[in-house]
## 1
Amino acid sequence: MVALFNILVFPGFIFLGVYALLFEFLDRRIYARLQNRMGPPWFQPLADFLKLIGKEAVIPAEADKKVFPALPIFALAAVTTAFLYVPIWSGNSLLPFSGDLIVVLYLLTIPTLTFFLAGWYSTSVYATVGSMRALTQLFSYEVPLFMALLAPALLADSWSISGISQFYAAHPLYILINIPAFVVAIVSCQGKLERVPFDMPEAETEIVSGTFVEYSGRFYAVFRMAIDAELVVVAAIIAAIFLPFFTANPVVGFILFVVKTIIILFILAVFRSVMARIRIEQMVKFCWKYLVPLAIIQIIVNILLKGVLPL
Amino acid sequence: MAKNLVIPIGPQHPSLKEPACFTITLEGEKVVNAVVGTGYNHRGLEKACEARTFIQDLYIIERVCGICSHIHSTTFCQAVEELAGVEITRRAAYIRTIMAELERLHSHLLWLGIAGHEVGFDTLLMYSWRDRELVLDVLAALGGNRVNYGINTIGGVRRDVTPELIEQIRKVADIVEERNKYYIQLALSETTLAARLGGIGKLSHDDAIKFGAVGPVSRAAEVPDDIRVTDPYAAYDEVPVTAITDNHADVFGRTVVRVLEIMESVKMIRFCLDNLPEGDIVTKVPRKIPEGEVLIRTEAPRGEDAHYVRSNGTDKPDRVRVRAASEANWHGMKHMLEGDYLADVPIIIAAIDPCYSCTDRAIILDNHDTGEQSVTDWRSLREYSINWYKVRGIDTSKIKIAYSPLIF
Amino acid sequence: MRKGPGKITGEALRHVFAKPATISYPAGELVIDKNYRGRINFDASKCIGCKLCVRDCPANAITIDNLGTKEEKKMQLTLNYAHCIFCCQCVDSCNKDAISFEPNIELAGTSRKDMIVKL
């Protein structure tokens, strides 16, 4: 019963949904304020979601009738599962086990793959170009993102998110070592979340909305929800690994979680408002030329430090 | 990959503000062939002008373009004044010049925002459109409307500039100059913007002349083609004008030309306000315009704008021909698009600051493969449509159409 | 000038706590210049029925009718502001100053019939 409550209500499905909508609102509001605009009212994401749910969902005649509607659910399910392994109210997540960092990272790859498949099965030209770009992009940001998140794990000598945050909570000064990895993680997760400057798979002004061009109604609503939830999960993971401050009190711990994720969200929103969308080949070049070497240096430094520092 | 992907950009596409169809053939992400298809927005306004009086035409001509509305009506007024043999007062000429330069400010700020939006830089869009709003407010205070100001009339202008308005214009000019300095700095130093704008949509000096490009497109290729300098009209013979040129010959060069032109326009507005002559603002022009024909060229924010007006001695024109600036720039578009990436297509199209419905007149479709042209008459067109629907299971042959004798 | 990405960051961060340039219309306060051309007003007592405004209107939005007799005129202007393009050429054309304009631009309605007003 408690497990069911945990999975469905808190911190599982319903909490994630509400928090994701709140996050979308905050993201849009911060983005608007950075641009000197009013921005949407607080209920706008919910209103968008309900409106999409109520709209007619069209499946293109050429699309695969079974795979097409199933893909949004896959994306949402993968993200929701990943959320169960992220610490929220204390240093421990709901179901911590050794190696859950790897599992979460792979679960977070599933949405990108569903975006690719969604574009591919839509059979529209825009969607095909979008899905090609989604996959090309996956190969360029995934490597630096993984390395940036694994470097702190090497120093902490733990492969679980909870273990890593507990280690850094015990040794707060070691967080400073991971600052390059933090930068790499922030930059490459913009690619994972498909936000400017790495939003080529969607690129509204170029390929309409890329992979999602044929999606409508409730299918698109679920996809949107999955994207918002992915934003929450990525922010929560980065907060857990790079900002591991928490207390024993669950209420204070939860408030701390909210504050930390909003700080990460603010950084992401600033990042997306100050740059132009770059071309896909420029992104591949950028990721492999700058981000990967930086992440490799971080890993080497962490391995060396591990031998030197008294742990 | 054996087969090339063919992507239609348009007729309905988020990056196009008006319908036009660009059929892009891709090899990977590279454009190997581009076909420009305009003609979705034929409004028949030249014919509409012939059916109305000169005074009424003024407002139709003003609506040729939503952004360069003032310059179109100035051109038309100048043409009619030329036919009637009327010289407008210097004050009216200066007010027209102030309006034209304010319009250039708002057009270029609008373009800067659109360019930002096309490359996903929405913050630039919001900032430059916020500053453009100030210019629109002052245009509304001066002219009376935000977009189609309606300040021109045949023989002068309809509204005078009051001292309060002069103050307001000066204030806006100061703010825009201040903000534009920031945009120049931003355009020259922001690497993501330079990476997206630099080196794409190349139209070299020789090509610009060959394709007859006008306005910022040709000036970015070091063709000093500016009607304000080469053939001064309104008050430009007294106002100091410099044609801004650049040697990049790409989208980045066009951006630089436009942002620098904003600075020039601010200077010109200040000069006009300082040297505003006293006098009447309108000269009486008879309703019936004497017989004759005239061609007038002016410099719109997008380039050279040409109007041909022929009168037969009545109060209605015999023929009006409008050649908007974008029409001259379409010809080089295919050349600009080919060889660049798909991601660059929207910004290359946007870089000529296209105005689709300004340029759309009746068109002739020719076969792209053989270059053959054919003329289809009304009756065979109807037969074709009946057959087209019959294949799809709808019989439209029963529908009766009243054949107009005009068509046959 | 040093080049680099994210050059607009300082400017953007400055705006986070600044007053937004937009208003939440229709709740916010709309500022319209007094020179703005909105719907026209008609002064029937000044009208002599020359119909210059009808002749010059580019959108054929105006009709003038005489409801009274030839001696005792009672002019009525019917304006279809769904057709009106707010150029106010009628204001300029009128020699007797019977037509004027005011900056009234919030004219949206739900029916085409509401757009035809008798002034």
## 2
Amino acid sequence: MSGSVLFDAPGPNAIRRSRILSIVFAVAAVAALGLGIYQLWLGGAFYQDRWDIFLTPELWFGARGLMVGLRTTLTIAAIGAVGALILGVIFSILRSAPSKWVRVPVTIVLEFFRGMPVLLMMLFILIVFSTGAYWAVVWALIVYNGAIIGEALRAGMKSLPKGQRESGLAIGLTPLRTTLLIELPQAFRIMLPIILAQLIVLLKDTSLGYIVGSPEIIRIGRQLVDFYDRQGGPYALSMFFVMLAIFLAINITLSWLVRVLARRMAQPRRGGPNLDGTKTEAIPVSTQAMREVKDPQAEITRLPGAGMGGQG
Amino acid sequence: MQALLENWPLWLQGMWMTLLLTGATTLFGLPIGILLAGMRVSPVAALRVVATVWTEVARNTPLTLVFFFTAFVLPKLGLILDFQIGAIIALTYYTSAFFAEAVRSGINSVPIGQAEASRSIGLTFGQTMSLVVLPQAFRSVLPPLINVVIALIKNSSVAMGFFVFVLVSVAHRLSNTYGDQALQIFVGIAFSYLILTVPLGQLVDHLERKWSVQR
């Protein structure tokens, strides 16, 4: 339902009222923002000596600079994403295995992985397997997000019409090949927006490395603040704004890409031609399903236990 | 497991703090989330913009960075808070956006004909929302809201990195003292989280089955 149905196409009076309300509210919002900024200015947040450190290349590109932290964050996210996708496919196959002896234990293990905080898993891997902070973060992200992606893929496979699997078996494919060739590709397409949204969550979760001790960007930022604070003014606020800007730039770009991709994939994609050469009107099942996903990041809350942002 | 049983007051302390953070955040975050969702579908453009910016920024900021703000930046600005209060503020800000999205997706799940029908019999925006759309949205909104609370329980663990003693902190501290029992301690704490999250998840499944509106 689009918002516009909720109220009339406004007439002259309503337009005036809404405009007045808009202006009043905008003025109030701007005033509140202005007051906040004024307070910050009184506190000296905009003095040059709070920002001068960002002109030193050392802060960005030094051995323990922000860019190094950003690279760690992105590398962890990339390894984690690939690993989680692979593990997710494996989990989803095991989870819908025909044998009860495989299906039930895998279901329990997946429920276990999804029910605990990623941070707990990171600490567990760090302390029990002594992998070092970096790999503890990577492995925990792979296992946790693999469980979520596996569950998403399974939900996608379950939403397919029964005929998909039956016809696969009927043309003589083995059950495993039916899953791999018929069900998984369609499930993947249906769940693509949700899976991609989860990968953005994974990127945000890399910042938990701050707590575990892996040298990602927020940890580096904190160390830089501590370092430069000893040479002058408090830099915590300006560092916060810089890191916020970096994360917002990356995440909003990625969210936007996901949304564009989801919309494009929901375009009617016709199947091949009919036997007599005419164009078929059939729309693939997965395309129909994709149309129902409007906002992938909101949709993720509907996935049982997947949670909205897992962590961080 | 021995270590965990011997240190049950510590466990209780962590459990209490986890529940406190979750409860307080839901108490403050849910009304803010509902308000934000209402603002996002309202006729007043300025309200829509503010709500959209709020949710987009909150959703795309790592929770760790929000905690960084309340724990390290606010004190520098002269606002010295208890770490627990800071944690509640950080979690409330972050979670309110997800509450808002859950409510909004619930509002969007009400078929357009319902709103059209109530508009056509002359109800205003406020009446349409309060009498027709929201009562129906409530059913479809409750399961995703509980999912947000489940995620919130897990998210509260981030407070550990910012000087609040939650359940994960119990695992961390005990495994340092009783290195040989680390595995049991972590499994025990994982189950402590599961006894909170799994029943809520079951509730979601139950509600979804019971309340799904046949249209």
